[in-house]
Amino acid sequence: MVGDETGRSQSDVARRRFLAAVGITGTAAFAGCSAKSIGAPVAAGDSEDAEGVSDGTHSSPDLERWVDEIPRPGVIEPSGTKDGQPHYEVEMAEIEQKLHRDLPPTTLWGYGGQFPGPTIEAEQGEPIYVRWQNHLPDEHLLPEDPTIHGDIIPYDEPGARVVPHLHGGNVEHESDGKPQAWFTRNFERTGPDFEKKDYYYANDQPPATLWYHDHSLGITRLNVYAGLAGFYLIRNDHERELDLPTGDNEIPLVLQDRSFNEDGSLYYPTDVPATEEDENDSHLDPSIVPQFYGDTSTVNGKAWPRLSVDPEQYRFRLLNGANSRYYNLKLLEYDDESGDTGEAGPPFVQIGNDGGLLSKPVETADRLELGSSQRADVVVDFSEYAGETLLLHNNAPAKYRGTSGIGPEDSEPLPEVMLIDVAAAESEQEPTQLPDELTQVPEIPIESVDTERFLTLARQTDEYDRPLYALGTRNEKIGYELTDPVTETPTLGDTEIWSLANFTGMSHPIHLHLVHFQVLGRQSAADYDPAEDDIDLDALDAPESYELGWNDVVTVDPGNVVHVIAHFGEFKGLFSDQTGDYMWHCHMIEHEDHDMMRPFKVRSPDDEGGSE
């Protein structure tokens, strides 16, 4: 294989010492780094589970389930043109919206006066401009923690900081929504990376389900939780010719978890609870929490909703828009009166994922896994379930460790997501067949790889003894800070393999801006030494069916290495050549804010310099 960015200089002895230090030996899968130091093991179910995901005492109001129909976010129209291309104006403002029949209106931050925001529909190869207009109040809706990047964020100055990011967009770096490209109301104040008011989206990529959300440094978790998220769909003529469900039978569904106070306001924890191991009683308040898991399911902004469908095929564009929660989904028969579940319902037939259509439809064998920010484009045929009610069921525990980590001792804190009511059949209908081939997904040849990188997911503690997750390299496995110098500097036109090794006790959804990659496979971290081992594709666990095609997020389970391959630039007529500064990070948003995010720089072939 091609050498990596540092050469094969690390000794096997050093590697084995590190793996032993973090608790990964043999084929052990669930180990991590100590809550107090990097050197002691943390097994699954140990102190990482003792972290506060909330204050442990709050419960949302007891809401009657299944009383609200799921709304469908409307499609926004351009307000005019710029340089001959459609120009959109999308306002960010504080709004009030009913999230449940029995809750008072909830104060939220929304795009276009709604939560989730209006859907933007674009055509492949046809650029658009968007001016994101900040009309938010000066004071944040939720408590900010000024210890998070407090040396580079002006928490003490007025104005709500926002910067929208088109997640999954193959875009110029000036329009990527960098964390430090934030701006306040009417662009009165801007961050150091702010460059332009009108974002330019070229849409030179396959038709796909993208989404836009806030990405402001240190408060992304708060801004997204407050409601700043919406769908962005790219379409083309080829997809239209596939005769997939359209119109009322095509429904974007964003799955999120929220917690509420009695007055309908959003509840979000503001401090990390004390544990028996704490050496003192001093706790920051407000403080970031390691993860957040709400106790109420919301879909398209409605709590515990139901969806009415006909006994036909439907296309669901599923998005996990939760801050931290994983979903592992399946449709089950459901008795609405008793609340009992029955046999499995219709399967998900996946036709696309993060980056667009798969080459052919894939029926999920059991459940469909979605980490935070992942999308699944699925078709469900309800023709054999006329008159029945189905439950969208989730069996992923809050602290997710992949499907192998689900057992009877694990809790299921949010198993019920939404109900689906299938109308009675008015007449017998012939089932609609999906095409055998959806599109051609060109495979990135492994023979074309220029650089291999070994990148680590590690757990540390910060100066306040709070859990802190970080991203590192072979030479700095415990991870870097966001502001440390760039270590990943691919060259435009190059192909790279990024081997992501998880040395923590939980799963992480890792997202790369700009590029879409293909998953090569997985193996135990104990069985792969980047200094000595080639990547043997035949020895890897194959990608899951929902990971085929183009991805911009991949789940890395504890103790595993996931190998992904990416081409930086145009590839066989897809995507575009872009250089500049981008980000890669964990998409559990609490982790992203603190401090599991790193920059990477795509260099021009004429640039000098390299990476670690």
Automatic annotation (TrEMBL):
Naturally occurring in which organism (per UniProt): Halorubrum trueperi
Annotated PANTHER family: BILIRUBIN OXIDASE (PTHR48267:SF1), CUPREDOXIN SUPERFAMILY PROTEIN (PTHR48267)
A Pfam family the protein falls into: Cu-oxidase_2
Chain intervals for the UniProt region annotation (Disordered): 40-64
Secretion signal, residue range per the UniProt entry: none
Domain Plastocyanin-like: 105-140, 165-237, 484-604
Name of this chain's protein: Multicopper oxidase family protein
